[in-house]
């Protein structure tokens, strides 16, 4: 049985991850630097209220806030329910409404490790040519995108899109300290690919990194947005994101409407 690391060590790691000095964090939390130092070295145990305030200032994810509370001898505060739990009915309905309402454009919901939770009808027509084994649950959408047997061979700007995804994943892994995300980054970065590894966007009047995908309907170009739940109190909702793709040009919009018969 692995015992939790002392709460002070965990707080120190989060502070360093956020690139804050003890003075910075103490100022943000409205406490003395001396008190914070005592907590980090184990000479003092924070109250529940202070620990939650520190976690908020450090933007610690809800899952890890529970770990901090447990290490300090307090009961976990945040529950983790599956999406099919009756208590999650309203949240699930909201997710499905957002996905359906985005049609005829693609949208999908993913968890913290980029596993597919749900998708609208516009997603599947874009996966033609993807090997069947990558579509077996749990489907990882980043693996699906960059794997040589996934969508990668059909991404016209693979180097640009690959660099964008890897940079985003690295930022997420660094911000959360999640070892699974770091492992996923290493796996994806090791995939062979023919795209240019340059990080600079292609010339043109673009405002975001596009995804340019070759399909039977022609080359489709997308820009994407990410939607998260505001002020979630459940770990599942806190770690869930909806990725919505919008047409970057009129031809893509027309093709997507035709694909769904709209």
UniProtKB/TrEMBL annotation:
Superkingdom to which the source organism belongs? Bacteria
GO terms, molecular function:
DNA binding
Instruction: Name the chain's protein.
Output: Helix-turn-helix protein
Report the residue ranges that make up the HTH cro/C1-type domain in this protein.
11-65
Q: What InterPro entries does its record include?
A: Cro/C1-type_HTH, Lambda_DNA-bd_dom_sf, MLTR_LBD
Q: Which PROSITE patterns match?
A: HTH_CROC1
Note one Pfam family from the annotation: HTH_31
């Amino acid at each position: 049985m692995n015992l939790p690391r002392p709460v002070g060590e965990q707080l120190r790691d989060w502070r360093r991850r956020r690139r804050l000095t003890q003075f910075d964090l103490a100022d943000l939390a409205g406490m003395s630097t001396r008190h914070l130092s005592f907590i980090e070295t184990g000479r003092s145990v924070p109250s529940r209220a202070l620990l939650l305030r520190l976690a908020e200032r450090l933007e610690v994810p809800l899952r890890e806030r529970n770990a901090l509370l447990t290490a300090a001898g307090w009961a976990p505060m945040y529950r983790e329910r599956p999406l099919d739990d009756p208590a999650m009915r309203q949240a699930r309905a909201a997710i499905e409404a957002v996905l359906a309402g985005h049609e005829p454009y693609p949208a999908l919901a993913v968890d913290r490790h980029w596993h597919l939770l749900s998708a609208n009808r516009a997603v599947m027509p874009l996966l033609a040519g993807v090997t069947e084994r990558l579509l077996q649950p749990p489907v990882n959408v980043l693996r699906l995108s960059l794997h040589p047997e996934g969508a990668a061979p059909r991404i016209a700007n693979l180097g640009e899109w690959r660099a964008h995804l890897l940079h985003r994943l690295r930022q997420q892994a660094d911000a959360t300290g999640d070892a699974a995300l770091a492992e996923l980054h290493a796996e994806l970065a090791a995939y062979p690919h023919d795209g240019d590894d340059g990080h600079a966007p292609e010339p043109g009047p673009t405002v975001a990194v596009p995804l340019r995908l070759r399909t039977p309907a022609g080359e489709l170009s997308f820009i994407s947005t990410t939607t998260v739940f505001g002020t979630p109190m459940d770990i599942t909702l806190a770690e869930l994101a909806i990725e919505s793709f919008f047409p970057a040009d009129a031809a893509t919009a027309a093709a997507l409407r035709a694909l769904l018969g709209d």
